[in-house]
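Readers of this paper often ask what the protein records in our data store actually look like. Nothing more is needed to write down the fold, since each code stands for a local backbone conformation. Below, we set out a record of this kind in full and without editing:
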Amino acid sequence: MRPGRAPLLVLAGVLLLACCPASAADTAPPSHGAAEKDKTRAAGLARLLRQTYPALMDQFAPDVVPGGNGYYLISRKDDQAPIPLLAAILVKHPPKEMPFPATLADTLARPYPAGAGGRMPAGGFDPGRTRCIPLLKALYGGSAEAVRANCETVDFLGQSVPFNRRHGASAALRRVAARLKNHLAAHPADTAYVLPLAGTFIWRPVKDTGQLSAHAFGIAIDLNADRGLYWLWRPSPERVTAVRRGYPQAVVDAFEAEGFIWGGKWSAFDFMHFEYRPELLHPAKPHAGSDSAGRPFFLKGAPKQPIIGEARASCAGRTIFRPPQPEDTPWPALSTRRTSLPPQ
């Protein structure tokens, strides 16, 4: 089978199963053991949030709740949307399409490679670029006005920028500035990669996606754009490689040490971009994601990485399982998506 046909055939099969009657054998519910492992995995994701954002988790009920096609955390506040932890339905997407809306499991599906690694990612490997928007709204504000009210001014190497004060974000940015001040005093040539800053808070979606940017929540900062390429600018491959290799590791380290991830480790690169995402750097992160068989949960791995997990489709309130097929393996863009949501 040609690789380009596999995702289309899987998606067509999902739609057919959802719309057409199926035999009893085809609609057997998942085993009790598999369901328990999914619940355990959801509880692991909730535990990761509780360890990373303890103040937020005080606002949510302690137990994970099944609903729709996945597991959720339910707020104690009537006006707060549930946080989707993981989806029980997996659907294929073309490689260039990002999954919206995303669950917390989506954001962890590709482990973020902290440290000196990750500069040469495989195509489609964008760890952390998929964001769980209900989580970010719960953390930092659900509207432009709410986020703006939560921002405070941070002095970043002589430039004043707005940054969200909630859950330690602005405090972390100040610590980054202190680290960089010491580094740049010893290595002034690296200042050109940092200053002048290109921006922080602005309520807007990611270009051509409709998904809110991390900048919309006041948790992202863009350094000097003249030294940081963006993938939609379509620079030459030679220039991209040069920036990947030449961007100062000490600058990246200063941000990662305080809970920020770098857009230079995405195949859809954004070299000037850093965003505060401590859940992606938490030491408990590797244990938060596993499939129903207990294996590490990397649904969106590198192109040569075998697909782990199962593609599932809902039919008449029951679940149908489709094991991974050999022809699926070259496709990097398999991700979870909820086909129905709890009321929001």
Q: What stands out?
A: The chain has a mean pLDDT of 73. The CA atoms of residues 87 and 106 lie 9 Å apart. Residues 32-52 form the longest helix (21 residues). The first strand starts at residue 65 and ends at 67.
